[in-house]
Amino acid sequence: MTTVPGRRSSTFTRLLRHGFTDPSAAERLLDLPALSTVRTDSVLLDALGATADPDLALKGLVRLVEAVEADERRVLLDTLITAKPLRDRLLGVLGASEALGDHLARHPRDWHALVTYEATDLHPGVAEFEHELARAGDPDSLRVAYRRCLLAIAARDVCGTTDVAETAAELADLATATLRAALAIARTAAPEDAAVCRLAVIAMGKCGGHELNYVSDVDVIFVAEPFDGAEESRAVQGATRLAAHMMRICSDTTVEGTIWPVDANLRPEGRNGPLVRTLSSHLAYYQRWAKTWEFQALLKARPVAGDPELGAEYVDAVSPLVWQAADRENFVGDVQKMRRRVVDNIPADRVDREIKLGPGGLRDVEFAVQLLQLVHGRSDASLHSGSTLEALRALAQGGYVGRVDAAQLDDAYRFLRAMEHRIQLYRLRRTHLVPEDEADLRRLGRSLGMRTDPLTELNQEWKRHASVVRRLHEKLFYRPLLDAVAQLAPGETRLSAKAAGHRLEALGYADPAAALRHLEALSSGVSRKAAIQRTLLPVLLGWFADSADPDAGLLGFRKVSDALGKTPWYLRLLRDEGAAAENLARVLSAGRLAPDLLLRAPEAVAILGDPQGLKPRSRTHLEQEVLAAVGRADGAESAVAVVRGVRRRELFRTTAADLIGSYGTEENPAEPDPGALVDRVGNAVTDLNAVTLAGALRAAVREQWGDTLPTRFAVIGMGRFGGHELGYGSDADVLFVHAPREGVDEQEAARAANTVVGEMRRLLQLPTADPPLMIDVDLRPEGKSGPLVRTLKSYEAYYRRWSLVWESQALLRAEPMAGDEDLGSEFIELIAPLRYPMEGLGEDAVREIRRLKARMESERMPRGADPTLHTKLGRGGLSDVEWTVQLMQMQHGWVEPGLRTTRTREALAAACAAELISAEDAQTLDEAWVLATRVRNAVMLVRGRPGDTFPSGPRELTAVGRYLGYEPGHVGDMLDDYRRITRRARAVVDELFYGA
Q1: CA dihedral defined by 23, 29, 31, 36, rounded to 10 degrees?
Q2: pLDDT by residue (tens digit) across 713-726?
């Protein structure tokens, strides 16, 4: 083909127009002698241009023509030009698969496999494939025969003769025939083993589901029984050798390549278990040890090779176990957790290209369908299919999935499977990654029928389908629950009440009937509120199910919606603020305390939609708000009612932030540092209670004396209050101190101070909708026998003359919280020598502290309580850590300024910095203290009342575990971890505190 220099030939232009990316190379190939008789044939160019990759197709054709014998070359080329079926099949394969082009170059006579076009060739089954493989007597000939069959399957696929589901089924049938042929070769090689055992090969995974890829591991399980008269052990050994040989025949790489790996890791105990078991051994394992995912895997179990009767017996025996799996505790959570773990394990640089495992990928569809099958297949045998698409169709027909959702998922799954097939077909390599190279993407797009702009069209279609899957795969489980209580259009199928109950039970609802009533109340009607809630509920149900108490979450949401459903801002908040709905779901389903606080004033839900709403407000800000409200109020009771309302609102803010930080959300993962959560709660609740006391004090004074009390008055925080370590259920330990103003009689000042104390306590405990603040003054001098309030001089006299060592220890946590700041500072100055004595503690004082601690351990532990799980007084609990730290403070605080703090963790860190304790021991104590504090907080959040031990009820215990970061089903791990961490802490306490 000579041309004028500088001008392109007409062939060059035609090649460019037909989709060739390298027309110059194509021209050179067409000029080769092998194609001399067809190079100018327009039919050939048109056919090449119709392939996924015309350049690749032409290159493969040249290699094939050059490889065939000379006398056969003319037959091939003549047939290629005159027979459209062969032309489309052959060039279609060569343009889509470099690997099959390589096969044809090595085995050129296999092009004849594409010539015949009879009805049986269009949709072959296992029998036809077995016939094609029958002549293979060794592994190499089996590989060649397998590739020849694969060539025909690929030809039907790329030409559109079969759709993606039919192609996958053909690939599974070919795998079945191949396993049978490989087992026959193994039996021939070891007749003595074949004579003693019945061996059945059970296909699992995609092969079992009749939906195999071009290149995939073929998952199998082996079951064996002895022939009559044979010993079981000998039969199992023989079967194991046959199974291992069969696997090698398929998996080994030879000069003819490999077929595919045979993977038996889905067997009981995985790779650590025996390769072959008897049927009774399989059943014993599944009945006693199997995890939820193993029953999910058995959904696709199908006997494919070996003894057919034994294979059928296996499936019949395990099938009832599969359909009982949904009755297992935490079933739905286990399945969803496994899916999340798969996604989490994908390397970050691959997650966006993972068509199988990534978000919106094939596995999302498969997991969603399998979950629904396991839940509803208990009572509906029509769902017992191993095929994803068949199961999806049955779910839609039964009303378990909406028809529109099912159709969209079917479409998306077929497209994604077609992408996966064409990606693997190119080089016959096992991969699920969308390529990055433009040439590969162009070939992929063209192979799927995208010809105008393959790269852009492919990306748009892929993203669209992945988006559909992401949107639907979780909602698929929940949306039909709404249809079950809704008015449906004629012809629509609804989820029956029984099926809805099964689904709700699987989600963890203890009262499915009540849950359905709530759903009906929330979603029925034509109001804007009902429409928005119908949109939200499928998502909310998923979040509720991810908690320990879905029933409480749904009931709480109904109550909040009943209270606020007519307010436009509430509906707008849920509709437009994505985080608000999830935050609300987390708060409502995590326990009793936060919902109780919210339902007393539901408008506080607005906090959950404000990006800054979960951050605690500063003490200064809160004090300004409270004191301003007290100044506007008519009377002390109305003033303190406002103050307690502020406290309730801020307690809700704190509990909500704590729960959301502990659980995490889709956008924000859980807080990784539990110590930060504890400090945040302690500081927030301490500030809140301090402000509440300040407001009550101002109200009490203002009611009787106006702006000025006859005596200066201060509230000193003690215990956890002074240490900024309050939990949700803690009382406020305080001391009251006053100092008469100049010219005021001491008795008058004392009466005024006692009146203020009595009024503060009354006002803060009045029965209202808001939680009371209990004031505890038992740490005052002389305890319950002493006066509630003393002058500063009285404190000085008492401490100088009568103070005991335990009182000095208690004063380590003293910090002014409300009232006269100067008086508070004077009190702190007064007690400094007591809590940080010069030269530290003497031996007698140390001995007394140890004696008191030992007495407290033996006398104050509640009867029947488990000392290994009591957070306050138990082994390695709060008391152990705090007394150890306080002993170091009293011994060394006079010389180490860092120890002069009321906060346990700060003091422990300072002791470590001063080398009074090793970093390892400090970490051990800190970890135990933080954990015990979080358990106490969790108990209050979950039960709505304080407690020092883990709850006994399984649902409440699970809720505590979720707050602490343990997945459902792992409360045993939580208790074991608590005992382990506190046991290590107690060992440090024994050494440092008791001197053991």
Answers
A1: -130
A2: 999 999 999 999 99
